[in-house]
Specification:
This protein has 221 residues and is of the alpha/beta class. It contains nine helices and five strands; from the N terminus they run βαβααβααβαααβα. It is globular and about 50 Å long. It catalyses: dTMP + ATP = dTDP + ADP.
């Protein structure tokens, strides 16, 4: 069974770039690696409904914190069997966002911290009721809110099909979400966490994670 590793962080933090660097380093070291990004836009009806709601469609759906959280959770539930197969067929499965993202944004919308009822509700929903695989390691890419916002604006400007949604435009929400992520990492929520900054070297980080997993659960190459 492969190791499940998750990269978490704010919108515009650079998760995609870091993930690509990690995958390249692991494959060069001989690991068999697969990746998956949540929400699964273009593949999952739940993810697409959530994206549309954040851009003003579907009535007042976006105003309901729990309705939005349920859409993101249902996307992962529908992907669970495929995720388990990836774990069976690979040494490492790297996810761009997972359950902690739902916990962080839901808590932040409620103005709660990482130990509040919103985080517990997401945990019960996704890990207990939906029985999603628990990560072996969660990696928080921590960047200043201003930098993440600037990157999100730049991404939207360069990609006409990727305009910023309501979450990305809300600087207060992004700041609170960053604080919840810090809480989750500090509490080692659901699994071990690591924290990386915007200048992290993917090759060095990949080696450190491999060593950590080797000592923790016997993943070797």
């Amino acid at each position: 069974m492969g190791a499940l590793i998750v990269v978490e962080g704010l919108d515009g933090a650079g998760k995609r770039t870091l993930s690509a660097g990690l995958v390249e380093a692991w494959r060069a070291a001989g690991f068999v690696v697969s990746t998956l990004a949540f929400p699964r836009y273009g593949t999952s009806v739940h993810a697409d409904l959530g994206a549309e709601a954040l851009r003003g469609r579907h009535g007042d759906t976006a105003s309901s914190i729990e309705a939005m959280a349920l859409l993101w959770a249902l996307d992962r539930r529908d992907a669970a069997d495929g995720l388990r197969k990836l774990l069976a067929d690979n040494d490492i499965v790297l996810l761009d966002r997972y359950v902690a993202s739902n916990a962080a944004y839901t808590a932040a919308r409620h103005h709660e911290g990482g130990s509040g009822p919103a985080v517990e509700w997401v945990r019960e929903l996704e890990f207990e009721r939906f029985a999603l695989p628990v990560p072996d390691l969660q990696l928080l890419l921590r960047v200043p809110v201003e930098l993440a916002a600037r990157r999100a604006r730049s991404r939207a400007a360069s990609d006409t099909g990727r305009d910023r949604d309501a979450y990305e435009r809300d600087s207060g929400l992004q700041a609170r979400t960053g604080q919840v992520y810090d809480d989750l990492a500090r509490r080692q929520w659901m699994s071990p966490w690591r924290v990386a900054g915007p200048d992290a070297d993917p090759r060095q980080l990949a080696a450190e994670i491999s060593n950590q997993l080797h000592h923790g659960r016997g993943v070797t190459r």
